[in-house]
Structure formats: C-alpha cells, structure tokens
Amino acid sequence: MSELLIKNGIVYDPLNDIYGEKKDIFVRDGKIVEEVKKPEILDVNGLLVLPGGIEGHAHLSGSKVNAGRLMRPEDGRRGLRRKTAITMPESGYSVINVYGEGYRYARMGYTTMVEAAMPILTAIHTHEELRDIPILDKLSMTLFGFNWFVMDYIRKGEMDKLAAYVAWALKISKGYGIKIVNPSGGENWKWGKNVSSIDEPNISFGITAREILSSLMEVNEILDLPHPIHVHCNRLGQPGNYDIAIDTMKISSGFETKREREPLHVTHIMFSSYGGEKWKDFESKTDEVTKEVNSNKNASIDLGQLMFGDTTTMTADGPLEFALCRLTGFKWSNSDIEMETGGGITPEIYSPSVPVNAIQWAIGLESALLVKNPYQVWLTTDHPNGAPFTTYPEVISLLMSKDRRKKEIERVNKAVQKRAILSSLDREYGWGEIATITRASQAKAYQLNDKGQIGVGADADIAVYNINPEEVDPSKDYEEVERAFSATKYTIKGGEIVVRDGEIVKVFPGKTLWTNAEFDGYYELIEDDLKDWFSKYYTVSLSNYGVSDVYLTNPEVIKTSPKIGSRIEVPAE
After folding, report:
1. Which DSSP symbol is given to 262?
2. Which of 102, 188, 283, 495 is deepest in the core (most CB within 10 A)?
C-alpha cells in the first residue's frame, strides 16, 4: 500500500468549488482518499496545487503526425534531449517524438491527453504511438465527418444503421467519441472542391454539413456517448467564415441531452472567427462568435491559440492545407484514406509583423476573454497547428495579465489595433479560471469523472507549481507565472511522483480509454453492408480491420447505455 500526504498547498479545484483553500491532500494506491496512516510527506508550503492538466485537443499520434515528422527533419533536430537512465531521447519542436510528448506534458503538470483525429483504417498506427507515449493517460477521437458509410446512411435516412455503424467503428478503432472535420467539404475535396456553407450538398451523396452534424449529434445521444460531437467547422481558416461557426453552434441550440455536458463542441475557434471577404480586409469577428457561445449553453469551444514562430500544420481538412501551401509556397502533403477521411500537412511561419498573423493571435485571446462561462472554453493551441503545446505557459500569462497583452500589442503589427478588439478588453483570468480551462472544463466535457479534480475517489493526478498564488500578482508578475507553469515543482500521476523540480524522475505507461457503445444486434444491422463495401472498395479485408487490446496500454473501457428504441426503431429480427 503506497500512501502520500501533500501538505499545506493552496488548492484550486473548480469541480469541487475549491478556490485558493489551504489544505492537505491524502493519496492511497493512486486515488484521493480521506485519510492516510503512514504516508510519504510532501510539504509544499503554500505552493499552487491543481489537478493534473487535461489536453482536450491535440494531434500527437498516428499516420498524419508521423508523416509530419518525416516531412520536417529540420524540426526534428530541435528540442533534442539525450537519453538518461530513466528517459528515452527527445526530439522535435512542433512535431515531437512520442517520448518527448509524454515528458513535456508531464513537466507542465499535464497527466491526460486526447488525440483529436483518428482514422479508423489507421487506428492501429495511432494506438501503437499512443502506447509509446509515457506517463499520460490517453484517448482518441474517431473521424466520421465524411465517412462513406455515415454519409450513405444519412442519405437513406437509416438512423438505426448509422447508430450501429458508429458503435461498431468506435469499438473497432478503440475510439472515445465522434470527430467531424469539414463535413461535406472534405468529400468534395476529392474533386478539388469544397463547400461554402453548412447547407451546400456534397457531390457524391447530395447531403449537407447540417445533415451530417445534426444526424451525428442525434446518434451521439442515442448511443449515450460521454463526449459531445467534436466539430472542425467548414471553411476553416478562410476570411468571412465566422458565420459558419455561428450556424454550426446554432444546430445544438435547444437540443436535449441527458448528459451533464454540451452536445456540441467547436474546435480551435481561432481559425473559425474570421471576418472580411479577402486577406486584405481580414478582421476579427470574435465578438459575434462569442455572442453565440454566451447565449447557447449547448455549445463549447477550444481556443486553437496561435503563437508566433514556426510550426507544422496538419489536419483532415485537405482543402485548408492546400490553401495554406498556395499562400506560403512551402512543401505540402495530401492524403486520401479510402472511404473514411483525408488530410494534409504543410509547415507554417506565424510572424508578429504580418497583419493577418497578428490578428489571428488576437482572436484566440479574445475568444477566451469574451466567453463568460469558463466551462465553455478549453485552452488549446490545436497542437501543432496554432503553436506547439509547450507555449501554454505563455498563453496563460497573457490571459492573466492585461499589462502583458498591452506590451505584446505594442510589438505586433498595428492592424491588431484597427481590426481586432483585444486592446479594449480589460478582463484578466484568475487562478480558478485557469484551473477550469486547463482541467475542469475538459474533464466535464469528456465525462472523465475521476480526472480534473482532487475530490475523494478521483485519480491522484496532481500538479504542484513553484509559485504562491497568495503572494504573486499575475497581472504584474506575468513572467513568474509563465516560469511556474513551464515546469512543475512536482507532477504526481496515479499517486507516483513523476516530475520533481521540472525533471522526470519516474516513467511508466499510462492508460488507454475507449468507449464501448454496442447494443444488442448492432453488428447484424450493418454486417451485409460492411461485407459488400469492403469487398468492393477497401484495400484491406474486414477481418484485418481494427484494433485489438494488444495495441493498448492498460485499457479502460467506458461503457455506455444506448437509448435504442427511445429515439429510433431497430428493425425486428
């Protein structure tokens, strides 16, 4: 029996309504408990204590990420750390090797991560890499946005088969929930086209993004999935796209869900809050987008914050990557994953002197500052698209300090002062709000009931930062805030100290979480369709498709209670 007592910390735990309380935390066998008998004692003497961080949206594993590593050897030579007695070597800045991903998150106090886009066909590759990411617990969002089975069932109005297919695909891919990228537009990219609105039909199936989104939101509820549909909007990254983000969120307005989470989550909102008709008159429309968030309790967002420097963009949104390549002239990769999805990769340089980049930087911060309820916001950079996740400490300091924002606004292109509203925003995040957007909001959205908190029964995933929140004014001492969030005093994973004074001291595998939403007779509903299309169109056999437990680390299954019969009728045998 291993026991640990963390004494005298200043705790922020929003899920348990704890905001700056000095208290002790008791740990036994990897869980928070009410008391311990003979513990190891860590007296943290007034330091900031938070639950372990949760990365809600990042691109960290799988064929797309590995292709990015191969495409950018110059990136891989950055961030090198030698192998030690307990750690493997690290490499990469924006496309980091799997070991570096685990170590760098842990050093920042993060203990759980989400791979945001997993094709079913390449799920084995994704899980092989997830298995090699040390320390962190991980889960993956399975791509469904322009999957042929999904679009065909929607076209035919076969909601029973659609629910069955999603349940089967989550099980076969060991995925956690439904990810949707550029619905309908991704399919049109196979013909070099896109869509201009959520009501424009695609070429192959004649269905719209609205139909895909509303149908999969309904299936999400039918299958009782823990996480909302996870949506990358149409026309992402294009001037004038803000109205599509608003239209997308409006689909969820009034939708009834029995889960204690929003039914729809819009990803990396920075890339979907653009005004203007072209890049010359490009402007922020964050005020309009966040107005919809504030009035719609059924939608949440993550930031996708852009930070200046070079990075590697990668997404299942093929037309977006091609458009970026045309703008920059940089190298570019495009892929089509058979009947399921596609994507692209291209490097990007964000410069503070470029008007568009400066406004993009402002949009992400504006989004966080304008949304009233912090539970509707997650801190992300859409790693690595907006910036590497290692920039989170700097983003946190910007949100907590108007002075720092003012200093940065004076440094960047003056277009920010004319075509964005960041300079007019006085709000400064407090410690509790930072704890919410980096921990509590993600735990709530993913229904990770034993994470994102320090209540009795929760996983003992804890971050202790070398800063006293009672003595430091983050508005003025923003450099100290950034320093503290860059490297923890202690990171504790499952009751074990894995980081001490910013250095990895212990390494072990985390858990893989996936959702089992199967219901009686679900496979029989779609078996003939699967066999037919696999024999006609796929390059792999149905028997060789999918992920077995051998590819997972300490798998933990989230079982659901499908509402088959209450919302749709399943045909009788």
Report:
1. -
2. 102
